[in-house]
Amino acid sequence: MNRERAPGTAGRTFRSDTKNLAPTERKRARLQFTLSFEGPCPNRSHCARALAPEVRLLLAFALFLSLAPVSSPSGSAVFTYRRIFKSSTPEFIEIKIDENSDKASYEIRQLDEDPGATPFEISPALRQKIFELTAQLNHFSGLDLDIHRKIANLGEKTFRWERGSEAHEVKFNYTVNTAASQLLQLCEGLARQQELVELLQRRIKYDRLGVNDALLELETDLSKGVLPEPQQLLPQLDQISGDYRFVEIARQRARALAERVRHSSRADLGGMSGTKSP
Questions:
Q1: Hey, which residues does 121 pair with through a beta bridge?
Q2: What's the maximum distance between 2 C-alpha atoms anywhere in the chain?
Q3: Are 130 and 79 in contact (CB under 8 A)?
Q4: Residue 195 gets which letter from DSSP?
Q5: Residue-level pLDDT, tens digit, the chain, 278 residues
Q6: Is 93:191 a contact under the CB 8 Å cutoff?
Q7: If you ran DSSP here, which 8-state letter would residue 160 be given?
């Protein structure tokens, strides 16, 4: 029986009795034989020509989809708060919050330090509150928040909202806008909260005798009601209270603060408009 070799199938043969098939069926049979060889088809042009037109169209469409960027029809909004205040500590604060994710990021540093954001978690309730305030402020579109009076420099603050190619931002030194003031307080509170997390982590690791002083700072801020989600500090408080290597006064203070946080009425975000916890 006569045998002929299909392109790229060295050592294997393609049966010639397929010549009795229709041209299209013969091409498909040849392609099936070629692809049965281990590895990719060595003759891409031959494989492509053997495909039926409708199959080639589907493959081209699939290739287009694989190369196109993944995007959502509506997209996910991102809110950014930035404060630049030279000669202060810290000089630079930036917080980014995604509307549809519990993962946010913060960056707190001096301006001459290397940039680098750190992830942190934010509760759905607080995230909702923040984006409700941005909506009240019309996503900062055409907004002027600054008081435009000669007052002390309190640092340049920026609110930015973006979704896909749409973006709006507003900068100000000081504002009397109620919604903007609430949003500013939440952002500054989040920044201070993450500062305390970092401070406790450093003291736990490198300065166990300094832990009690860090806890005193936390206690003061907790009493002032400036921390939006103090429960984020519970891992550090529980670690300190349960570790005998820390001085007893620090362990007792950490235990008391953890108990206070767990039973705090500030779990209700509606009370975060400036009212101090009792």
A1: 103
A2: 100
A3: yes
A4: H
A5: 444 444 444 444 445 455 555 555 555 555 555 444 444 544 544 444 555 565 566 655 554 444 443 333 358 999 999 999 999 999 999 999 999 999 999 999 999 999 999 999 999 999 999 999 999 999 999 999 999 999 999 999 999 999 999 999 999 999 999 999 999 999 999 999 999 999 999 999 999 999 999 999 999 999 999 999 999 999 999 999 999 999 999 999 999 999 999 988 544 444 444 444 43
A6: yes
A7: E
Q: Residue 233: what are its φ and ψ, rounded to 5°?
A: -95, 0
d(CA 160, CA 171): 9
Domain ranges of the chain: 15-67, 78-271
Instruction: Return the exposure string of 12-47: e unless at least 16 CB atoms fall within 10 Å of the residue's CB, then b.
Output: eebeeeeeeeeeeeebbbbbebbeeeeeebeeeebb
3-state DSSP assignment of residue 201? helix
DSSP, res 173: S
- Do residues 104 and 118 touch, judged by C-beta distance below 8 A? no
